[in-house]
């Protein structure tokens, strides 16, 4: 009988309150420890928004280590970049640029 391996990659979590986020991260860390897995803190990112503005004073921990904020190191999750810019005005032009690069690569390959 073969073993079933489960991989969790690019997980994004959203909470409405800071204390809920901290509690959720502790519970996730407990579950990961139970399953003998661990988070890669270097690959994790955090983003805190209060009253529609980026809050640079809040830091979260995973596995007893501070996670970098998206201001320090932007991250890509599910084709979307998370960074310190809260507006999506650049997303349209970025999408067009990605599409043209992809189509150009297809034309070269065919």
TrEMBL record:
Keywords: Nucleotidyltransferase, RNA-directed DNA polymerase, Transferase. GO terms for molecular function: RNA-directed DNA polymerase activity. This is Reverse transcriptase. It comes from Plakobranchus ocellatus. The lineage of its organism: Eukaryota, Metazoa, Spiralia, Lophotrochozoa, Mollusca.
């Amino acid at each position: 009988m073969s073993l079933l391996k489960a991989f969790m990659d690019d997980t994004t979590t959203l909470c409405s309150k800071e204390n809920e986020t901290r509690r959720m991260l502790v519970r996730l860390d407990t579950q990961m420890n139970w399953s003998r897995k661990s988070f890669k803190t270097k690959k994790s990112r955090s983003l805190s928004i209060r009253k529609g503005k980026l809050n640079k004073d809040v830091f979260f921990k995973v596995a007893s280590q501070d996670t970098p904020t998206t201001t320090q190191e932007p991250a890509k999750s599910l084709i979307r970049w998370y960074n310190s810019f809260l507006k999506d005005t650049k997303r349209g032009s970025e999408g067009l640029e990605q599409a043209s690069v992809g189509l150009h690569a297809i034309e070269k390959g065919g």
